[in-house]
Every structure is written in C-alpha cells, then in structure tokens.
Amino acid sequence: MDALTLELLNGVSLFAILAIVALGLGIVFGLMGVINLAHGEFVMLGAYVAYVVHTVGLNHWLSVPLAAVVLFVLGVVIEVGLIRRIHRQPELTILATFGLSVCLRQIAELVFSKDFQSVPNPVPGATRAFGVLFPTYRYLLIAIAAVIVAATLLAFTRSRFGLVVRAIVADRDLAESAGIRTGMTNLCAFGVGAATAGIAGALVAPLGAVEPQAGLAYLPGAFLVVIVGGYNRLWGVAVGALAVAAVQTGVIHFYDAVWAQIASLALAVLVLQFRRPTPAGAVA
Amino acid sequence: MRTIQDSRSRSRLWFVAALVALLALVAAACGEDDDGTPDAPAATDTGAESTDSEEAPEPETTEAPEVPEPDEPETTEAPEPETTEAPDEPEPQEPAEPSGEPVRIGILFSNSGPAGLFGPPTSNIAEFIEEDINAAGGINGRPVETYLADDATDPAVGRQAMEQLIDSDNVDVVLGTHSSATRQAAKPLAEDANVLYIYAALYEGGECSSVMFNTGEVPSQQLAPVIPWMMEQTGGQTWFLLGNDYVWPRRSFEWARQYIEAAGGEVVGEEYVPLGTQDFSSVAQIIAGSGADLIFPALVGGDAIAFETQAVDFGIGQDAIPRLANIYEENVLGAMGPAVTAGMRVTLGYFKEVDSALNNAFVGRYFERFGADAPPHMTFSSHIYDAALLYAAAANAAGTTDTAAVAAAMEGLSMTTPTGDISITGSRHLAQPIYVAEIQADGSQLIVQSFASVEPDETCDPA
Q: What is the per-residue DSSP string for B194-247?
C-alpha cells in the first residue's frame, strides 16, 4: 500500500515536471507551429537564473519570477530578431532554432564555464503525508507547477488574448483581415512560452545539474509530451504529460528505466498512428 | 486564402518533421558512447588544431614549409626552476638541447560537448609534456611538439580529428582521452596509417590492436582490490548496482558482481537508466526497497548529480547507504556539494592528492602555472602525461619513432611518474596504482587507501 502511494506520488511529481517543462513548447510549437529546438536551452537558462540567484545569496523562490522575466525578454528579442522572419516556413524554423540552441549553449559555456553547477534544495528533507515520506521540495514543485499550468491554460482559453490566439491558430489570414494584429500576438505568445520554460528551469534546478548541455536532455521529453498530448490545443500538454508520466512510472516499476524510455517513445508513435485529424482551430 | 484542408496537411508535415527531429535527438542522446563520459548531440566545434603555442597548426599536408624550428625551444629556455627536480626522466639522456625535425605527438581529447569539461586540464598538461620531454633531451635528440584535436564528444567528429592528426599534422603517435565510441571510430585510421595510438582514458577493457596500448584504468583494476576493502570497512554485504545504460557501466558491473560474490557479498539489485535521465524518484524507491547495504553508482555527469541530490531527499543518501564510485570526479562531486558527498569513496588510478614528492611538486607547478582556480589536474590528464612519458622512453630505447619498433620497446617498460609506479603489461595495458579517496566534510578528497601496481585482468596478443 505504501509502495503504491509512493509510486503514485512519483508519478504525480514526474507529471508536474513534464507538464511545466513542456508548457512553453506547447504554446510555441503546439499553437504557433514554430518547431523550437532551442526550447531546452530556455529551460537551461532558467536553471542558470536560479544558479545566479543562489550565488548572490538570494532566496531560491525569487528565481521563479525572475527567470520568467529574463526569459520573457529573451523570448521577445528572439521573436523579433529571428522567429518573426521565418515562422511560416517550418524547415527554416528547424534550422534557425537548432542554430540558436547551439549559440545559447556556447554563450552559457562562455559566461558560466563548462563546469557542472548546482542549486541547493531550499527545503531539504521529506514530509510525512498519506502514510509515507516524500521529498518536501517535490510537493512544492507539484503545487507551483499546477498553479502555473492552470493559470496559463486559463489565460489561453478564457482571456481576450487567448481568444485572439485561437483565432490566429484557426486561420491566420482571416484573423489578419479581421484586423487582429497577429505580429503582436505572436510576440506575446513566444515571450510567454519562453517565460514558462524559464520558470520550469528555475523549478527543476535543485533536482539536478546546472550546466550548458542540460537543455539537450529536456528537449526530447518536451516534444514527446506535446506530440502525445496533441497540438492545436494547449490542454494537450497536461494530457500528454499525464500519459507519459504514467507510462514512465509504470514501466520503471514493473520493468526498468530503459524500457520506460522505449515505451514512452512507442506511445508517441502509437498516438500519431491513431489520432484522428484535429479540426483546425479546435483550440483548448 | 488557405482552406482548412491546407492547414491540416501543412500541420501534418510539421508533425512529421518534428518527430524526425525528436527521434534524431533521442538517438543522439542515448546512442553510442562507451566510456566514462556522457554523450549527446555535440556542439560541433570540429576543431583539430591549436597546440599551446600559436605557431603550430599547419593545415597543409606536406610539412616542408614549416616555421623554422628554433622557436619552440622558447618553451625549453624558459624553464621553470622545478622542472629539473620534479618530473620524469624517461631515460637518463644527457639533457642536450634537442634539435632537428620535431617528433609530433597528437592528443585526441574531448574539449567540447558533454565531456568537454575534461578538456582544459588535458590541454594544460600538453604544455608540460612538451616542456618536460624537451628538458630531458627530447626524443632521440629531437624536440617534441604536441598537436591537440577535439572530438567534441562525438565519434564522427573524433574520426575527422584523427584524420587531421594523421594526414595533416603528420603525428608520430596519438595519445587519446575520449569516449570508447570515439576510439572505435578513430582506431581504423591509426591502423591503416600504422600510427601508434595510446588510449589513456579509463574504460571497460577488452581493446587489443597492433598499433594500440591502453593505459587507462580498467574495471578489474578499479574493483578487484577495492570491493573487498569496501565491504570490510563498512561491514556491508549486499550491493545495489546503478549505472547508465551503455557498455562501460555494464562491463564494470559484470566485474563487480564477480568480485562481490568472491568476497562473500551479494548483489541485490542492478538497474540501468538511459543517459540524460533527470528524474530518479522511481529508481530511488527500488533501491530503498532492495535493502542494499552499499551502492555502486556508475553514473556519469549530470545523471550522477541528479541521482545523488534526489537520493538524499528520498532517504537513501550516502549517510544511509554508503557509495563506492568509479567515475565521480571532482567536478561532479563539487556540483553535488559536500552535504551530499561527504563520506563517499571513489576508486581511481590518480587523484591530485596523491602524496609523493614527485606528485606534490607536479601539482604545485600545475596550479602555479595555470592559477589556483585552474581546472584541476585529474586522472584523465595524469594518464595522458604518463602516456607521453612512456612513449618518449620507448622511442628513446628503440632509437627511432618507427611504430613497430616503439611498440616492441613499450612492452615491459616501467617508470615512476606523479601517478606512481607504472609498467606496461604483456596485455598492452598498464599495471598501475589504484587509490581510494574519501570525500571529506569540506568537500576535499582524502586518499584513505592505495594499492600498488594493480595488474589489469586483460589479455591481448595482436597478431
């Protein structure tokens, strides 16, 4: 019983991590259709924000809003300087964002060196709940990720901004002729996508290594989640993260971690095989 | 005006493209790579060049219009006072000023990509290799020059770098410290060109080729004496083996299982995780449930850091279940922090803390030259230094740089270096000291046990 509870909590915490990491990609790739291969580097930079916050002696939690601001600004700069010019050509966005990811890694290496860094856990230890001990930080991570993912989903479904985004996703040309400033909306959406990636980076920083290459490990997982969850609808990120987390945790529990990785990739292939085409514009 | 149909098929196309990109990334992230270093699609910095002095890299194949030789004695004639007393003596050659056409020593190493952080100490040591061998009279009276080539932690790039060293730089020998995947990709080039190739990184063992010597630690050396010692020290009997999923951890665990059972212990769990694993919650639960007394983690880079930092919060940190590690090095341990690492034991063929007059002088000179915060000299750079001295001694003994003659002179060669007493075995590996360091509360490494001249359990008889 306790083992099952623990495994459930493991699954939920993995779900939270996957969802928060994939959220930005869900916006940028899923909604805007920009295949952003630099998404992992946005997460990596968010982790470095947490590292800097730690180095100057500030509270870790401050790094969450700070990473959002820093990455939002960076996202806006990248959108204006790069994405805006090519976003209607998927081949070009693949090449350009791949190049961008290499640049961001090298810049991080120049600024912070190749060395592994880390951010100490702000709340070390475990909390007893549901009859089991589970790391306190993971409880907080689950809560914060839930709030941010939910808030983002609401913003994209209930607000006027969300309505505009959905109109653009449904038909960009029609939206433009209806007087919607698609350029400004793209700018905001890309900025918000980058900001959530930054938040993800700051949140996961205490769980592992902070290093220039760290983003490479996050990118495949994020794409997996978005593909499994379905593009064109942001809540697909939550569905995808849930599915991948369940498969991962279950397979690790019964087999091992290597099969878990194979199983989650197989899941993506299966989903792509059997998914009925989503009617364009069926956002959220 | 696009129709719905249009946008749908277009989205389809994007999807396929994304999936291809994703699979390529995953394949790259969990593919090849066989030794103590993680891999991943590397930031390609294909560079193969740049010796420590700027004049060296000459792209052209024919070496004729070389810059006049006399300019590398610049290194010789600015001798650190300690060169005389500290290092080497590969051969008691009267230190006559070396002259003539230089002997070219190529160094194939990882200076970018995931294992790139091991690069800087190696390029620092290349400077000492030139200085020290030249100060001792060079090789057969000729000065030596080093040529560095970066494999970017990528076997394909490594192959190109090897090609560059052999075809453009015309090296007489290649010293390598990089992944096994790069070794497998680069080895055929050395064999075809009949260039001596000394692979100096710790690896899984089993390499055997007529142009190769392997001077890094193999699992049988790191584990045979240390596993029984560890069980005696801690009283632990049952082990959990946790490694990244590739050849080096798997081979290490085959050896480990053998030594554990021989010492009366038991392996109660063996798990592998893909390279780049970030969440260890489920694995932590498996370990906690296994009842193991000891953990042998063969995890590399970021995976090691993620596992150890998460393990503490899951109640299976070092204080609960002691670790014996065979790759955790200073950089990784530093990132985990002393709160996580204090008490861990690491088994390797070299630590900069090795306490001998030779090593203390060498390490002192290293930090004096490259600064107190220089990337620390460690087992990879130390083995490259030793490999260069072994090569110089063998070439001096053979009186030539001919590959077959030097290879014949290599066998049985012994010497004392900052690493300790080393000798080339009949299996073309290196009998060498093995040290166990214990991480202290302040994060420093203290050598608590050493085993002299540990023989590798390898066989090799190249035809």
A: T-EEEE-S---S----TTEEE-S--HHHHHTTHHHHHHHHH---EEEEEEESSH
